[in-house]
Amino acid sequence: DTAVMASDLTKPVLDALSESDAPLLSSDAFPSDPSATVKAALDRLESRDMVKYEAINTEVLTLTAEGEEIAANGSHEAKVFAVVVAAMDGLKITELPGIVGKDNAKVGQGNAFKRGWIKKDNDLLRATTDSIVDETQQHLLTVQKTKTLADNKAMQDLKRRKLIVLSKEITYKFSKGPKYARELVKEETDLTPEMIASGSWKTAHFKPYNFNAKGAPTTAGTLHPLNKVRQEFRNIFFEMGFEEMPTNRFVETGFWNFDALFVPQQHPARDLQDTFYISDPLKADGPREDDPNDPHLPKSLKSDKPLDYQQYWDNVKEVHQDGKFGSIGYRYPWNADESLRLVLRTHTTSISTYMLHKLAANPRPVRYFSIDRVFRNEAVDATHLAEFHQIEGVIADFGLTLGGLIGFMEVFFAKMGIHQLRFKPAYNPYTEPSMEIFGYHEGLGKWVEIGNSGMFRPEMLEAMGLPKNMRVYGWGLSLERPTMIKYGVSNIRELLGHKVDLNFIETNPAVRLEKD
Ligand code: PHE
């Protein structure tokens, strides 16, 4: 097969140049080879300085399928003339389509009249001459051979009749390069021990490194975009002196998720339509001491002092039911069973609460954060799933003020490139005051809600046994939101769940939050 044999033109290019010091044109030297094949050979030789070349874009004329047909068999008008001239006594007009076909009859008749080859005689067609020159066919044959047509008027006419089209063609003009040789020497791609031992490396031709080569994609595991953005947030927290909280408790008791946070048992967030409850087992054990040496706890929480869980439990009950620590409470009969119900945690504030209670064994200034999954029984749409990730931080210290919380937020969000913040009073059962945080997003050009924050209530902190003068900031935001903004994903289902395009996960770039 010549096409296969001709597929490497390296040698033919070198041969063609051996007789010529002047540049050659690929359209002359290799008229029937595809231009990609020519280019491949030229690129290969150019990379070794054996040839130089440039690409020339030219416009050429080519025949359409109908043009090819006419070049082979003659024009419509020539076909009409042929049958008319053959009919000695004239040809009935109505018979013409039956002989030459409808199309030929219609177009050909008109053109033959225009050229004066035939005339009408009542209902007959008669030839006015014995022979004609089929210019249309002649022109098409010229185009077929030379890809051009000097007669501009004829060229326009053929184009209008859709017999020829103008198309682009690349021609390569190539000549000898500084290292031109008739043969392509083998280039070594490796320096081997054998070459060194034998000394053959001294005369070997080594292939130069191709620093432009992209390299084959490797199959490897990749991090999900959420994990990449999570890592960025973890770094921000670590550089601000935070310790990471262990978040492996996806299933929580109502106690840690709600009651300890001073969320009343009638609160709508505790309804079935907002929270997922566990059906098996239905209930948790009652209050008891847990492992004080849990290796996953932040170092600042290691303490030998035992915590009185029963006292804490009783404090929570009392503060809800009757009021305590200067609070009048909610004044409803508190139900222990409601507190022992198991839920999929609705926020990671359950973890923060658990940690703060541990802090009561040895109260001191601490900074904790966590980034993990939470669950809410919500209608799923383009921006909401029934599970998402929360980024949460808490800061405990003596003498903290609301101004300090606002100041901290400005520093924290500036580290992710958000420099303008607005705060709006809000309500959480467990914080007072509470603030929603809005940030001006330069990329989106608008204010977006970026988080919820507040100072934990004394009802919550004092019940744990934390000192009266200790204050605790808390705030939370979703991990999905900044990730979607960063990666330009508008539907959360493209980021999480079964509709995720694995190719997107594998090829998405590393992410950096703009820092100053
Ligand atoms: N738990 C809150 C939420 O889910 C976030 C928050 C945490 C608010 C701590 C205040 C204090 O949105």
From TrEMBL:
It is an enzyme of class 6 (ligase). Residues 227-509 form the Aminoacyl-transfer RNA synthetases class-II family profile domain. It holds the Pfam family tRNA-synt_2d. Its EC number is 6.1.1.20. SUPFAM superfamilies: Class II aaRS and biotin synthetases (SSF55681). Belongs to the class-II aminoacyl-tRNA synthetase family. Phe-tRNA synthetase alpha subunit type 2 subfamily. This is Phenylalanine--tRNA ligase alpha subunit.
